[in-house]
Each structure stands twice: as C-alpha cells, then as structure tokens.
Design brief:
single chain; mainly beta; six-stranded antiparallel β-sheet; 6 strands; 66% strand
Length: 102
Amino acid sequence: VIRAEGAYALQTVPGPELEKFGLYARAAYAVTDWLQPAIGFDMMRLDGPDEDDKWGLLAGVNFRPYAEILPTLIVRIAGGHYQDAGADADDDIVMSQLTLGF
C-alpha cells in the first residue's frame, strides 16, 4: 500500500500573499495478515526563508493482533527523525498508537 498527498495554498492576508506547500508519503507492505512494516516522509514549506522548512522520516511496524475478528484494529510502533531548521532542532521520536477504524 502506498499513500501520498500534497497541498499547495496561496493565503491572502493583509500585505503580500503567503505561499505554503506540504506533503506526506507512506508505504507499507503486508508480510502477513497481522504484520505490516511501514515507512513515511513528511515535508512542509512555508513562505519565507529556507530555515522555516520542516521535514521528517518515520519507520515502524503495524500489527493487527486480531486480524480476522477486528481487521481495523491496528497497533503501531514507530520511530522517526524530524528536522525543524527554524527552531534549530533535530527531534528523534518513538511512538506507539492504537487505532480502531469503523
């Protein structure tokens, strides 16, 4: 499964228009009914200097512990790196997520 989405906007405010752009992409492969490795990329560019740009990489594993009974129940464990040059910060994250879709 590959998913991607992008957005481009011109925001009218007092003064000049603001130009904004962002995207994300995710790729996952179902090894079994219950195991799915996944990777992702996020990026955001705001009008202004390059140091306002933000981006991130994420990798993890999706588990479907009860794939046959609750196919929309997903447990996700992931780690990633995010870069925000404007804040002069490199952020490494570890996350867990429990999702139940309908």
